[in-house]
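During the second year of the project, the team shifted from modelling isolated chains to modelling whole assemblies. The rationale, set out in the original proposal, was that interfaces cannot be judged from single-chain predictions alone. As a representative example for this report, we include one of the complexes processed in the last quarter. Its constituent sequences, exactly as entered into the pipeline, are reproduced here:
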Amino acid sequence: MENQESSSSSSQQHWIIEQEILREKLITEDNFTWKLLSTQDKSEGSKEEEDEWLKYIGGVDISFSNDDSSMACGTLVVLDFNTLQVVYEDFSLVTLHVPYVPGFLAFREAPVLVEILDKMKRNGNPFYPQLLMVDGNGILHPRGFGLACHIGVVANLPTIGIGKNLHHLDDLNHTKVRELLGAKENSSKDFITLVGSSKRIWGAAMRSTQASIKPIYISSGHRISLQTAVKIVHMTCKYRVPEPVRQADIRSRDYIRKLEMNAKTK
DNA sequence: GCGACAG
DNA sequence: ATCTTGTCGC
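Output from the structure prediction step:
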């Protein structure tokens, strides 16, 4: 007979194997057809060829119900990169049976989010994102394969991981990052590269706004380099969290709230 | 052994 | 992730 301990550790073994298999397809360098200019300047008589410039950036997030903790709302938004306005949104209500286990977030959240993306692609929607920002880490992860990598590989889409808290790795923790960001030699920089005791580059900690002391954590998801990821995140930050993720978060919460309001009206 | 641990 | 208003400050 298996007790709960051994059965949960055996499913974690399966998860680890799946992460290792998917990781073989992971690309952590720039690999996309569109171009990115710091100014997005396309004035000089260039044709508006589709896919030439980065125009549509997606953001995904999941929010949860207070009434029923297993009920969740997966959300996808797409923003126009130049105006940062939302041009598309979609929601999917689901019941989640997989628990949250640190290091295995993707097995809880990726299926819903990939399905919403697939639906949009199947419909041939012209706003289908050229790049996706994910509420969760990329390679900043115990096995170098967080939620953003998982979604990126499965959906074959360039993705950037955005963490609002640090997942401790190597010798990296909140205190250490605060020390690094507060160090005099880094005082002028708005971000620092996260290199742990293993010498591996995990990602970057960035104070997105002057006012925000609490950093966000950026890492490559799939088909994008850290350098490019940091650049794009910086360009999409009106507040601490970049707009694609922030809008997905706000709208996802709204959707759940309205749903719970209707439930009480009965 | 104990604590830490994205969302 | 989620419960929550006001409040201090640029």
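The first helix of chain A runs from residue 4 to 23. Residues 62-66, 69, 72, 100, 211 of chain A lie near DNA strand C (CB under 10 Å from a C1').
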